[in-house]
Amino acid sequence: MRRTRILTVLLTLAAGLLAGSPPGALAAEPAPRTAVAADSYTWKNARIDGGGFVPGIVFNRTEKDLAYARTDIGGAYRWQEESHTWTPLLDHVGWDDWGHTGVVSVASDPVDPDRVYAAVGTYTNDWDPTNGAVLRSADRGASWEKADLPFKLGGNMPGRGMGERLAVDPHDNDVLYLGAPSGHGLWRSTDAGVTWSEVTAFPNPGNYAQDPSDTSGYASDNQGITWVTFDESTGGGAGTATGTVYVGVADKENAVYRSTDAGATWERLAGQPTGYLAHKGVLDAENGYLYLAYSDTGGPYDGGKGRLYRYATATGTWTDISPAAEADTYYGFSGLTVDRQRPGTVMATAYSSWWPDTQIFRSTDSGATWSQAWSYTSYPDRENRYTMDVSSSPWLTWGANPTPPEQTPKLGWMTEALEIDPFDSDRMMYGTGATIYGTQNLTNWDEAGGTFAIEPMVRGLEETAVNDLASPPSGAPLLSALGDVGGFRHTSLTEVPSMMYTSPNFTSTTSLDFAETKPDVVVRAGNLDSGPHIAFSTDNGANWFGGTDPSGVSGGGTVAAGADGSRFVWSPAGTGVQYTTGFGTSWQASTGIPAGAIVESDRVDPTTFYGFKSGKFYVSTDGGASFTASAATGLPAGDSVRFKALPGGEGDVWLAGGAAGGPYGLWHSTDGGATFTKLPGVDAADTVGFGKAAPGASYQTLFTSAEIGGVRGIFRSTDEGATWTRVNDDAHQWGWTGAAITGDPRVYGRVYVATNGRGVIYGDTSDTGGGTDPGPGPDPTPTGACEVTYTVTNQWSGGFQADVRLTNTGTSAWNGWTLDWSFPGDQKVNQMWNAEHTQSGTSVTARNVGWNAGVAPGASVDFGFTGSWSGTNAEPEGFAVAGRACPTAT
């Protein structure tokens, strides 16, 4: 759960810190015409639902059902009440401003609910080349204007769960405050976010850093001003600035300040506790209480001690209202909210409690007494006040089978965002390192023996960092390598996969590949605290088994599968390039290629592999045992390179990459890397991938994230790079897209784009012959005879796996199909791949997905599923296609 977010970003953004002038051309191919944004694409996410840290949730205080969520690297979202989904608001952020996908704070205007603000910027050190900004919108985030700041902001920095650092004055909504990091103090705007100036009277810019000795500037940065809270009871009327303002500061001795004259002067609150940081300051103006959640660190991962305090604004009295003695805490407090409909009800979270679970506390008497979301009956047994249903995002169980008192799914971790709906005491949402959870019957908590129901409330919010993508010619249409959650096998792009890759669960998958002519063979490499760093699958990624690491491996690196799946080449972190035959039970060192090289395979010749390192291209023709440096020159000097070999084209290699001030663009080799030709007109390129050829074209479609004709975007070529079409637009840019790209070999025009925080984006063209949305279509009406082969391939106590082959034995092609059957017992389908399914009682219907709708005469389509059973597990009865009986093969 987000433990590796920093590592992921460092790895995936290494190539993202690029900009500059076009590199010089090396060789002559006909210059491409100016790129045109002529195609119209429909863009969606391959559904994962969540996958990243949500440090902030903000409800508007004056309009019901208006809420926003912020993420650390994946932008901001607005809640859609009618569909209970989230709408992304910052997809317009482009390549040069990729840091503005990190959101440090969001503020929704309580006077004019159409107005919303976002303080953006990802890092305060030099990892982010641009300064921060405050974005302002007058249409709830549909469009934005920007005010650049003279300093950086840190949406993905330590302390990012504190806040909110941005706030709108509830009486004079032209006035906003922004708490800055890095010693830049408190800032104010008096013209609704158009201009900003420092509040020079504010006395303390903060002094706390997570690790002052960190030379990178990441953990050593001063976390600064962490939150701003207005006391709306002190306003002088509409248009008059609120008199009393509270500000939180990252200073363990001086954590809270107050102004009583609308920000003209400030003072440290007398009598305040010391030795802690105030993560949140939430005011109950009706009762005159300022509640504060304290931790001994800035979070979001760390925190070993914490306290909750209540400050009486009228008398200045401080009361320790912590629900546990300080000696009994092993966590800090951060999530903090009050019930605006029921003054005196307050809730808080133990945000940094990883084991056995986070804890949520609730008080209905202003903190005098507390109850807990769970408690021990007799250790290690727990009694929960809640139920959890994660069937909409089943991977949230992590495939775990923990020992009590740990449970799966967990309540969460990094629970710094916690909000009760100000209009509905029964609705509460909270963010974790992986999702947003919520409830619609929270007040059941207060009933004797009552339980409230928790479920994911995250649909539409996609926040994974994507390291690699693959779209095999058969099986699942999409395989992904992701930071933090490992990756998924998508059999349907519109449904959440049941589980991430397991056995082993990598904290981040850094690379994956499949055997081109045997795509059931898949390999992935990744990072893991303890265990193998490589895994293999022989069923297209549905099930996995770990390989054996050679000595010295410390990280995933890159991996390549031979075209026929008989051998693999691996370039892990920590040691040199290795090769193996079989499935990695033993490895041998490759010669002639430096450690850290990027490796790929030829997609035709199973003994040919390629590598790249520091401007040199390497070739092996003996299965990776030895490599020889190519004589090719003029390639990018650094390692910000992605290259791929063309499926079906032996020795056909495309290479993208480079950096400002040196060679940067797209190169093509047709002789196995012996020579490369640079494509003129491609100013810069960072990824390259292939998809199904256009109707009438003989060469596969090329896709790249590039700058062509002076425009940054996602481009497509259907004529081997002679001409290019931009397929995205300025509203769909998703920040940095330099990690991976691939087309779909089965659907013309479809492209899968890796983002750094917005998940896997896929686009379908409106061109003739373009792709159709995946998922169910009109009821298919196949004609002609059919045959079914049903095989139980694995069975265990209470469960089984089955493969189904449906063959068109007629004389006419099918354009869509459904297969119906009935189980003779109590079998239930749990997960199905290469088809979608419904089940009612014993009756099951399997339906084609988008890419396998067409079945020619004599051809077959294969799908499989896992299920549960008890008693007996006999074969199904009564197979039928579109109502036509379909006999089983003998």
From TrEMBL:
InterPro entries: CBD2, CBM2/CBM3_carb-bd_dom_sf, CBM2_carb-bd_dom_sf, WD40/YVTN_repeat-like_dom_sf, Xyloglucanase_GH74. PROSITE patterns: CBM2. It comes from the Bacteria. Keywords: Carbohydrate metabolism, Glycosidase, Hydrolase, Polysaccharide degradation, Signal. Belongs to the glycosyl hydrolase 74 family. SUPFAM superfamilies: Carbohydrate-binding domain, Oligoxyloglucan reducing end-specific cellobiohydrolase. It comes from Streptomyces tendae. Residues 763-783 are annotated as: Disordered. Residues 1-27 form the signal peptide. Residues 779-889 form the CBM2 domain. This is Xyloglucanase. PANTHER family: OLIGOXYLOGLUCAN-REDUCING END-SPECIFIC XYLOGLUCANASE-RELATED, XYLOGLUCANASE (EUROFUNG).
